[in-house]
Amino acid sequence: MGQLDGNVAIVTGSAGAGIGQATARLFAREGASVVVTDVHPARTQRVAGMLSEELGRELLAVPADVSDRASVEALVQTTLDRYGRIDVLVNNAYRDIECTVAEMTDEIWHAVVDVCLLGTFYCTRAVLPAMMQQRSGSIINLASIVAWNAESAPRRAHYAAAKAGIQGFTRALAMEVGAHNIRANVARLGAERLDQAHAAGDGGAHGRAAPAGTGRGAGGDRERDPVPGERAGALYHRRGVVDRRAEGLRHSP
Ligand SMILES: NC(=O)c1ccc[n+]([C@@H]2O[C@H](COP(=O)([O-])OP(=O)(O)OC[C@H]3O[C@@H](n4cnc5c(N)ncnc54)[C@H](O)[C@@H]3O)[C@@H](O)[C@H]2O)c1
C-alpha cells in the first residue's frame, strides 16, 4: 500500500534530470498514476518509459509546453480521458537563462517568466474544474530562495521575479480554493544538493519547509548529479503536502 494509491498526479517538467523526474518516480512508487510531461517530446517518452520499466507500472507520457495554453489544456484533457480525475498537480517546469537586466531582451524575459509563472497559472487553471468537481486536490508550486537572496544566483532577475510571483500566486490561490477542499502549497527550494537537504522554512500558502535542490539550471539536457527521489519527495511526505490526511495544511478561508 502506497501513500498515494488511487491518486492521479501531473508533474510538469518531469523529463529532466532533477526534481521533476524524482518527484514523478516517488509519487509512482507511492502508488499514484503519474503523468510525465515536459516540453521535449522524445525525453518525455524516454523518461516515462524508463520509470515505467523501473517501477513496474505505467507512467503516462504527455509532452506539453506549460507556457502554451492550448498545450496545457490538451495535457489536462488527455489526463482526464485516461484517468478520469486529477488529484495532484506539481508545477515544477522551469527555464533558467543567465542574463543581466541591462542585457535582457523581451524574449529572454518571456522565455523564463512564461515557463515559470505563466505556466504555473495555465496548469493550475486547467486542473481546477476537475478538482472542484471532485472536491479535492493538491497543487504544489515550486518557488526558490533566489526570490529573496539574489546572491545565490546572480543575473537572474527574471527568474527571481517569477518565483516571487509564484509565492504570491499560491497564497492567493489557497485563499480561493480552500473552500473547495483543494490545497495549494509552495515549496521554496534552496540551491543545495538534495542529499544535503534541510528544512528551510517557507512563507508559502501552507508549506513550512522545502527540500534543497540540486545544481542549477533546467532545460534538462546537461549532465548533472542524480537527484535521490527520496530527498526530492521528502517535502511531500514530511509536510503532508500531498497526503489527503494532512488536515493541518488545508486552507480554511
Ligand atoms: N535545482 C535547484 O537547485 C533549484 C533551486 C530552487 C528552485 N528550484 C526549482 O525546482 C524546480 C525543479 O528544478 P530542477 O533544477 O530540479 O529541474 P528539473 O530537472 O526538474 O527540470 C525542469 C524541467 O522543466 C522543463 N521545461 C522547460 N521549459 C518547459 C516548458 N515550456 N514546458 C514544460 N516543461 C519545460 C525542462 O525541459 C526540464 O526538464 C524548478 O521549478 C526550479 O525553479 C530548483
Describe this entry's structure for a reader:
The radius of gyration is 16 Å and the shape is globular. The chain has 7 helices and 6 strands. The longest helix has 29 residues, at 106-134. Helix content is 40%, strand content 13%. The model is unreliable at 192-228 and 243-253 (pLDDT under 50). Helix 3 packs parallel to helix 4 and helix 4 (106-134) runs parallel beside helix 5 (157-177). The chain is α/β, with parallel strands linked by helices. Strands 3-2-1-4-5-6 form a 6-stranded parallel sheet, sandwiched between helices. The chain has one domain (8-248): Rossmann fold (3-Layer(aba) Sandwich), CATH 3.40.50. The structure holds nicotinamide-adenine-dinucleotide.
List the ions, cofactors and other small molecules found in this model: nicotinamide-adenine-dinucleotide
Q: Please describe the biggest sheet, giving its number of strands, its sense, and whether it closes into a barrel.
A: 6 strands, parallel
The overall number of domains is: 1
Percentage of residues in helical conformation: 25-40%
- Uncertain runs: 192-228, 243-253
* CATH homologous superfamily placement: NAD(P)-binding Rossmann-like Domain
Q: What fold name stands as the CATH topology?
A: Rossmann fold
Mean pLDDT: 82
In CATH, what is the class?
Alpha Beta
Morphology: globular
Order of helices and strands: EHEHEHEHEHEHH
Number of helical runs? Answer: 7
Oligomerization status of the protein chains: single chain
Give me the secondary-structure category: alpha/beta
Number of strands: 6
